[in-house]
Amino acid sequence: MPLVLAAAFALAACEAGGEEPSPTPSITPTALASEPAPSPTVIGQDPLVTWSPEPKAVGERGEGWLGERLLVTAPGDVHLHVEPVSTSMTLGFEGGARSLAIWIEIENAGDADWNGVFGAQVTLTDELGNTYLPVASPTPGDLHPDPDRYGFTNRNLMRPVAVPTGERTQGVLVFRPTLGNRTARLHVTLDGQRTTSWVVNIGQL
Q1: Which domains does the chain show, CATH number per domain?
Q2: What are the pLDDT digits (tens) for 14-26?
Q3: CA–CA distance, 44 with 90 (Å, rounded to integer)
Q4: How confident is the model at residue 8 (pLDDT cuts 50, 70, 90)?
């Protein structure tokens, strides 16, 4: 019976072979080094910073959109490159109005120094025909509490400012428009002749 003998020999060989092979040693995973927690980041839009349309091409260089640098002329053949860079707006109404702050960058691109009150001849007009003048002395509650976060400053442009030739400065004008969200135009006239204007937005979107 060759099949029975083969089975017997196989069993004998297993018993004579000694110890069974040891199982494969288990590998203990090395603990990963803990990474530092990421620094907190701001998620979502800042509720104080209003939405504004992307800059678009305009037919006349005396008119543009928020974020577009245009020429403003001043007495003494002074040429200023002016850009309303962004806006912020308070969330609550006070006396039927909210405070709209427009951050503005001014660069003296001419050959003569300029000194003056930039906001002295500035108005804000809306599509309903309302006209608003800048607030002479804004309160902290009118302004964004942390303009440095956006690279801007809350310097009051209703006070005298000096911009030597080739230099630039930043500041803010504050308006207190009534009613709700709508488009408006910021108008600047420094020499009594040329008026430059930008489309801006009143309110949150």
Answers
A1: 63-202 (2.60.40.1240)
A2: 444 445 555 444 5
A3: 17
A4: very low
Task: Please tell me whether residue 3 adopts helix, strand or coil conformation.
Answer: helix
* Cα–Cα distance measured from residue 100 to residue 90, given in angstroms and rounded to the nearest whole number: 7
Task: Dump pLDDT digits (tens) for 128-146.
Answer: 999 999 999 999 999 999 9
Is 142 within 8 Å of 174 (Cβ atoms)? yes
Q: Are 110 and 78 in contact (CB under 8 A)?
A: yes
How far is residue 144 CA from its own chain's centroid? 12
Tell me if 181 sits within 8 A of 111, measured CB to CB.
no
Tokens of residue 97, six digits: 């109005």
Amino acid at 200: V
- CB atoms inside a 10 Å sphere around CB 38: 6
Q: Which runs of E-coded beta strand occur in the chain? A: 63-65, 70-74, 78-89, 100-108, 114-116, 122-126, 131-132, 161-163, 168-175, 182-189, 195-202
DSSP 165: T
Convert the pLDDT of each residue in 93-138 to its tens digit: 898 999 999 999 999 998 999 999 999 999 999 999 999 999 999 9
| pTM (whole model) above 0.90 | no
